[in-house]
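Q: Okay, next protein. This is Major facilitator superfamily MFS_1 from Parvibaculum lavamentivorans. I've checked the sequence twice, so it should be correct. Can you predict the 3D structure?
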Amino acid sequence: MEKHKVTRWQIAAFGLPSIPISALGLPIVVYLPPFYAHDMGLSLTVVGTVFMMARFWDVITDPVLGMVSDRFPSRWGRRRHWIVISAPLLLISAYMLFMPTPPVTWVYLAGWMFFLYIGWTLITISHMSWGAELSADYDERSTIQGMREFLLIFGMFTVLALPAIIESVSEAGAGGAEKVAAMGWFIIILLPITIGLAVWVTPEFPSAPHQQIPWKRAWGMIMRNRLLQRVLVADLLVNIAPAITGSLYIFFASHVMGLPKSASLLLLIYFIAGFVGIPAWIRMSHIAGKHKTLAIAMVYGAVTLPLVVFFPRGEFWWLFVGNSLYGVAYGAGSFLLRSIMADVIDTDYLETGQRRTGLYYSLLSMTAKVGAALAVGITYPLLDLIQFTPGGENSPETLNQFMALYVAMPALVMLAAAFVMWRFPLDRAAQLALRRKIEERDGKHRAHEASDAAAAVAAVGTAGGVIDPSGD
């Protein structure tokens, strides 16, 4: 890839679609499942199963649409047209899912979730790949991904502010239709504006041509990459933990902690804490290394989450403190694993000579979605098992079992992620050695290509009488 300078305005414009992307992704995990179980009257098991199957459908489409995005460019480039194509799918699906007309059936929910995830996959994979291809500079790539992460969290702030405002001025219960509709309109209005600005302001640069590897061979090489396997396992675990707490949070804050009117505000505090904590985790990664910082963040989360067991019910400020402490770890796993994945891609590049960034990041996207699917698909049937009732009264025993589920499962998963990554071998020294090998190999290739080109020019010139071989 040639080096191209990207301005700060172009980087900012590139990141803008992250706002509606995250504003769409958060309600899918936190608000839509309880909304369809409580307000739309579907059973917890049905809702959990539909959301899990929709996520698995999303996982299936990831590599397929990722390869389509790689292999079918347009005159705009390789990525921007796919982002534009995704917009109508997302707009229509968001309208139907966030503003349904009751009664709804599981077929309605499943159908629109499947359409939503086609658009979701197109925009997320294309957007991540576009960002990776904007620059070949190591530090500038960090700036680009940092801007994307910053705006992702900003999108969470803004979409969470809507139900928090509604909770403060109305009597609507947590997960009510008014809050879900407000989120839907926020996404529908912002998505075309941000996509339009991104594709207009930020360019795509031409990539170097490369030979396509047959997909069976490509998958075989990828699946033999032990470092990749380890990152994917860690990413699966890192995403399961917040998906469990996220899918249970509205019920937890409303029924277990007795704070239904403050649920969205307290969730907003959690994300603000995560936003504030990111610079500290970045600084720590510069000192301790990315993989150890990731492990420390997971242990921190596993220790601070269980503190809610000791909080009195109905006390806003206690849960405020708990969400603030636990939320500091939010976001650490996501950006650290993306950064580590870039190092893993370098090992593949050294072995194959090809940059398959989009394919590798599609795998990372897959594990995140599988984690979210497992979280909803497992926890909601367990709520049925303990006889939890979203719209009615629950016994103290049921609420205690809910608390155990909310705390124990994520904590154990986070500890497992810490164990997987603590001794990850591709540390700072190993990465430096890897980069030197790549630069040495690429330098030899460039020198060889330049020599071949000079020889070809000389041969053509001699044959046509342009160059005198005697040098006179």
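A: Here is a summary of the prediction. The CA atoms of residues 343 and 431 lie 7 Å apart. The first helix runs from residue 8 to 15.
Q: Noted. On to the next one.
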